[in-house]
Amino acid sequence: MLHLSQAIGYGLVTAGILGLAAAGLSLQVSVTNFINFAYGDFVALGGYVALTAKSHGLNMYISTIVAMAGVALFSWMIYRSLYGPLRRRGSHVIALLIVSLGLSLALESLISIVWSSTQQTYGLSAQAPLHLGPFLMTSVQLEILIFAIVALGLLDLFLRFTKVGKAMRAMSCNMDLARASGIATDQMTEVVWALMGALAGLAGVMLAITISAFTPSYGFTFLFLIFAVVIIGGIGRIYGALVGALIIGVGLSIAQAYIAAQYADAIVFAILIGTLLVRPEGIFGGRLVSE
Amino acid sequence: MSYYLSSLVVLFVIQSILVLGLSFGYGTVGLLNFTYITFVAIGAYVGAIFTLGPPAAHSGFVYLYLGTLPWPINVLLGGVAAAIGGALVSIAILRGLRSDYLAIATVSAGFIFYTVIGDNRSIFNGWSGLYGIPNPVQGISSPAGEQLAFAGLCCIFLILTLVALTLIRRSPVGRTLRAIRDDGALVEALGRNVFVFRFWALVGSCFIAGVGGALLGEYASAFSPTAFLPPETFILFAAVILGGRGNNWGALLGAAIVPVGIAEATRYLPQIGDTTLIQDLRGGLIGIGLIVIIIFRPQGLIAERAGSILSPLFGRHDAVLRPEEQGRSKSATPRS
After folding, report:
1. Residue B141 contacts by C-beta under 8 Å, 6 or more apart in sequence?
2. A218-242, pLDDT tens digit by residue?
3. Neighbours of A160 (CB within 10 A)
4. DSSP-derived 3-state class of residue B134
5. DSSP letters along B35-58, please?
6. Residue B266 has what DSSP assignment?
7. Shortest Cα–Cα distance, A161 to chain B (Å)
8. Is A176's CB within 8 Å of B335's CB?
9. Does ipTM come in above 0.90?
10. Which residues make Cβ contacts (< 8 Å) with residue A85, sequence separation at least 6?
């Protein structure tokens, strides 16, 4: 049994990771308007690329950057070679969704073949937890939390003040208007996919560190928490996703500590279904999910 | 070997029933029920607890004991239980959600069921699941003969399913369902209650899932939560899409190729590397196959034809429906 402040501390770490992953997914969904079921496996790929980088003697920070770059490149290639042509052909969102299912099955198998399906770990040394005000967390967890906040802050600055970021927001608001105003929407969509990959890769490494031992399916399991965050925050609302991440991350760890650990995930899914029913546009009014 | 072949026949017949049920829900009405396997599981569990007898007879076994019923009543009851589950899910989430969000909601519902069943030993013996599920032809002859006899019994269900689905597809109801799949708003505008049609289509699809699940449980003689994780649904979806959505022969072909063919063919690959390699190759093959089909032949191997399922045989060639054409017209503006 954890104390409340401890539970909130763990919850904040989970929320940071969820926020990063959800920001990436939310950006992609709002720009390309289909749900990528393979996103969880992009997250897992990040964890595994970092594992390889680390086993080649790089330290954890460099390995994380390698993972971000690797998944960004992979994600960009997937969009260019697979989704881009399909979208230009005018494939229905359901066809794209089913392609992403196929990609998810293939990617998880690929990860399992390359890195084996047994439990893996980065072998970071265990640390004594530190007392930080009311919270209790290890220095690694604290670092994850700080890096997540910094990365989300940078993402916010990027979206608000750079030309590329503004173009992305314009596209997520209204694709036709954005195209009419001269934004190169096709190239920009590719950039969105690369950015999504980088965020997935970063979240993947952080998640892998937090759960300490991981198997190829860890990303797919995490995917539905990401969906919950994105839907609660409102589709296409990147800042909404952060609030969604706080609700789910902290709620999850409080539920684990005080209600019943084994039902924590079930509670999140019940919240997800409830949100879809009661307020399908999310708390902050993102894109409608009804027909 | 003859035992192996006859067990393959049973597997094909049962998987055909399952794929037909999914093909009805997805192919005919366009419902993305991503937790179809949950209804298969409900059927398997309910079918099993009505033939297993009192739990005391199996030491260390805990489950809800409600009595013992003769075959095939327990199988039908499995179907009814799954249909009730389907009705509950439909009432909760079928109204109003865009189909891809419906998919997320169904997977979430499936996860909740998975957790509740796994963590409560008193319902269906928790994570260890049920085992020793008897089938009605146990011990009537050699193991191979027993499998063939069971295949025969399952075939009765397969034929009934085929006949029922064909009748529905050829009826005005079937046309309405296909119209809803292609343009729900239009059908609504014509004065039909789309929700009611989709509700009964999902309930029907779940009933077939439950019956197939009960037979699957008896075939495998065991059932536990690991048998109904989301990827199992995706494999059945792959079968529907490969065979061709919304047509019964396509569903049978899909069942023969994906859950039976790929699963069994990979069994004969030499064992190299670690033990899960074959399983991974199987998943990879199905995943890549799914992508390739959507890219090169989105209508599936057997394209849907308007009209009778016998039209390929009797030359009544109506217009071929092309899903990719429909997709093109719908997504002229890709963003809503």
Report:
1. B149
2. 998 889 899 989 888 887 777 788 8
3. 10
4. coil
5. THHHHHHHHHHHHHHTTS--GGGS
6. G
7. 25
8. yes
9. no
10. none
